[in-house]
Every structure is written in structure tokens, then in C-alpha cells.
Design a protein that fits this description.
This protein is of the alpha+beta class and 308 residues long. The protein contains 7 helices and 15 strands.
């Protein structure tokens, strides 16, 4: 392990925190894990349930009022194998299934578009549905023997009939870190693929055998050539694109260190004052000379907390 990693310092709580839960961390339904293997209980929840449909782009129907559309399940519709149980609220089972084709009608939105405007209940339902259904779509064959798998336990496991292996939904951890100078400046960067003018905090996937804190230090050094200290935890948010969990941190860096953007990954990076971030936030995330990430992302909440 490099000397950079060995010299990581981890502090106590950050001097700032998230003012609100990240948009996709909100949920109110009971996941009801114990009933997933109880066929009779599942049939009762299906009979009195509501169904959420998600198209292959991860979009669901959202009313103009910002309410996620779930439909009552017809009394004569038997529970199909491809539905997943999202959870239970007020004795109502919420289920989801993936449509075979993109929905052509207007009013269908994905989490990036609608996530921040959804209610706590709807945000939790759609976030879980998008991630779980995407996992099913990509997990039809056993990674051990290559034979087909089938959905069991209300969609929370896939079982290989040939070798007996049990497959569970995967979550890939990634760190996202707000780097500041300990005073009134924060480090922002942009990827080449982002919309023109958009900047955010830095992020990257955790590698095998790596701690979250070590990943923070490595990713910041790799992406902009800066060493960090005082790494502290802020919060987390599921990010089902397709199956990430964003774990938020803050860290301190010396702004006199030269910024060296990673070729092909980081198009530009710069230090910006707290006042300029506040100006951008007051304008809904679109400042006069740069734009911030959307309100659905944890990055927005991190910047909002630091600016406050």
C-alpha cells in the first residue's frame, strides 16, 4: 500500500452535515423480509396490492402533481413470476414489474427527473423497483454454471435449478467526497460527458480489498492529484444506475497543491468560494458561471450542507 494511503487521517464528525436526507434515501414502506418465502402471505399481499410498472429505461408514470402512479391489482390476475415485492404500508403490498418495451406516452419519468419531487413513500418505491428490476434483467443466467435462473422469494433471490446456487441482488459501493480547504473554498470538477458547465464533487468506485476511507484518498489523488486528510462520513444514498450505493464523505485538502485532472476522466477542476456556491444554490443549482448537480443526487445535498 502506498505511503499516501498509510497517511490517511480520519476525523470525527464533519464540521457540517446534510440538511436533509438525500432524495433517494427516503422511504416509508416496510420491506417485510420475513414474508418473502411465505406463499400464502404473498398471495394475500398480492390480492390487496398495488402494482408499479417500470419501463426498460427505468421510467415510471408520474402525475403532474408529482405523485407516482401505482394501480390496483385486478382481482382475477394471478401473481406472475416476474413481479417483485417492494414492501408493505397500511397492509397494502406494493409490487413492481418491468415492461418489455419503453413506454411511448408522455408523463413517464426516471429518478433523475422526478426523484427529488417525489414523496418519501414514492421515492423509496421507485428507487427500489428500478434497482431490483434492473438486477433481474441482467441476472437470468447462473454465474457459476451458466444455466438459467428463476426468481424466488418475491423477487429478492434468483435460484439456479441446475447447480442450486442462490443469487442475491448486488449493490456496488462508491464513495463521493466533498473536498474543502477547511475554510471557505470547495473543490469542484466535471467529467467530459456531463452537460456543458456542470460541476460536482468527486466520486469513484470502491475496489476489492479497499476500505471506504482509503478509496476516498485514492480517488481524489487519481482524479485531481490532491492529497486529503480529515476524512469524515456525511451520509449515503442508493443510486440504482444500475446498482450503486453512494457513500458520502468530506475531506480537507491544501488548495495550494496543483490540480492535475486525470486524462479522459476529469475535464476540468477548480476551487470555488462558499459565496459562489450559495449563489448557484439560490438559483436552483444554476449559477452564472457553472451549474451544480441535480437535486436528486447526494452531491447536491452535500454542497447544500457545506454552503450553509
Amino acid at each position: 500500500m502506498s505511503s499516501r494511503t498509510e497517511e490517511i487521517t480520519v476525523s470525527g464528525p464533519a464540521a457540517f452535515g446534510l440538511l436533509e436526507l438525500p432524495a433517494l434515501s427516503r422511504s416509508t414502506v416496510d420491506r417485510r423480509e420475513p414474508v418473502r418465502a411465505d406463499g400464502q402471505a404473498l398471495d394475500r399481499l398480492w390480492a390487496a396490492g398495488r402494482l408499479l410498472e417500470v419501463d426498460p429505461k427505468g421510467r415510471a408514470r408520474v402525475r403532474e402533481t408529482g405523485e407516482l402512479v401505482t394501480a390496483p391489482i385486478p382481482a382475477d390476475l394471478a401473481r406472475p413470476d416476474d413481479v417483485v415485492l417492494l414492501g408493505v404500508q397500511d397492509d397494502v403490498g406494493f409490487w413492481a414489474r418491468r415492461l418489455p418495451q419503453e413506454h411511448p406516452e408522455s408523463g413517464w419519468q426516471d429518478l433523475r427527473q422526478a426523484g427529488a419531487a417525489l414523496s418519501d413513500t414514492d421515492a423509496g418505491l421507485l428507487t427500489t423497483a428500478v434497482g431490483l428490476l434492473a438486477w433481474h434483467h441482467s441476472s437470468g443466467f447462473c454465474s457459476v454454471c451458466g444455466d438459467p435462473t428463476r426468481s424466488v422469494r418475491a423477487g429478492w433471490m434468483r435460484h439456479c435449478e441446475s447447480c442450486g446456487y442462490e443469487h442475491y441482488p448486488r449493490t456496488d459501493p462508491a464513495v463521493i467526497c466533498l473536498v474543502h480547504d477547511g475554510a471557505d473554498r470547495v473543490l469542484l470538477a466535471r467529467q467530459p460527458s456531463w452537460p456543458a458547465g456542470r460541476y460536482s464533487v468527486l466520486a469513484g468506485f470502491v475496489e476489492m480489498g479497499e476500505s471506504l476511507e482509503a478509496c476516498v484518498a485514492r480517488e481524489i489523488a487519481e482524479e485531481v492529484g490532491v492529497d486529503v486528510s480529515d476524512i469524515s462520513y456525511l451520509g449515503s444514498q442508493p443510486w440504482p444506475f444500475p446498482r450503486s450505493l453512494m457513500v458520502g464523505f468530506a475531506a480537507v485538502a491544501d488548495p495550494t497543491q496543483p490540480l492535475i485532472p486525470a486524462d479522459g476522466e476529469i475535464e476540468a477542476a477548480f476551487w470555488v468560494s462558499r459565496e459562489r456556491v450559495r449563489t448557484a444554490l439560490a438559483a436552483g443549482g444554476n449559477g452564472p458561471d457553472f451549474a451544480l448537480p441535480g437535486k436528486t443526487s447526494i452531491a447536491y445535498r452535500m454542497l447544500e450542507g457545506w454552503a450553509a
